[in-house]
# Entry
Amino acid sequence: MKRALIVYWIIFIGFLVPFILGKNIIALADSFHDLIDAISITFSFYIDKIAGNRSSIFTYGLHRLEIISALINFMVIIFGSVFTLYLSFTLGGDRYSLLVILLSFVAIFLLLTVHEDDENNLNRKAVVIHSLFDTIAYVIGIVALVLSFFINSRLVIISATALIVILSVLFSFNSLKRSLLIILEGSPVDTEKLEKDLQTINPGVHHVHVWAICGHINVATIHIEVNENMTIKEVDSEREKIEKILREKYNINHVTIQFESKRVD
# Structure
């Protein structure tokens, strides 16, 4: 993430130059979006540093900050996209297009070096998504600027800006959807299928609840009715089998199991 942080601030400053000098609309769209990404990634970078800090109050740490960050990023992208589209209609400059094209190629090269290993971390995943989107956005900008040399129409530039704005929102929508699912404590897995899998170990499995703390920490609580004559060792053996399935098949890291001699609903 640190590499992405540096890359985005460099790209933002680079595209700011042709916009300031010649009010280039494509440079405006790219620089404004890169500013949003640079701020978002900077925020995410520091959240990633403190998310694992646990205390007697925040026993799971501060991982929900990842979700807050993702929601803030989405709202900033919406605002920035609408504002960029508005400015594209009010500003008509297209000077320094060759410089913008050159900067776009440099930006594409830099963005291709951005990658993250932890795809379940919403912040880090958002960085990769942003880099993929921006690569596409720069290609669109290059095509639009080349066409403007031959067609000489503001409509080409404005259309390209609008397309970049639309793609920006679409690329961020999945992150918003996943963040809302976590906030509403929706299950990241099919609980009916999970319950059937666990009932192959013990048919007394019931009251299965699964939710996510963040993109990479899933939690479950389960009730299990067992024979009252079972020993602690036998119960513990079942617990280990259940935890293995939850961990390996469903990526559930934390589980609380309540064993009952009589089913309690």
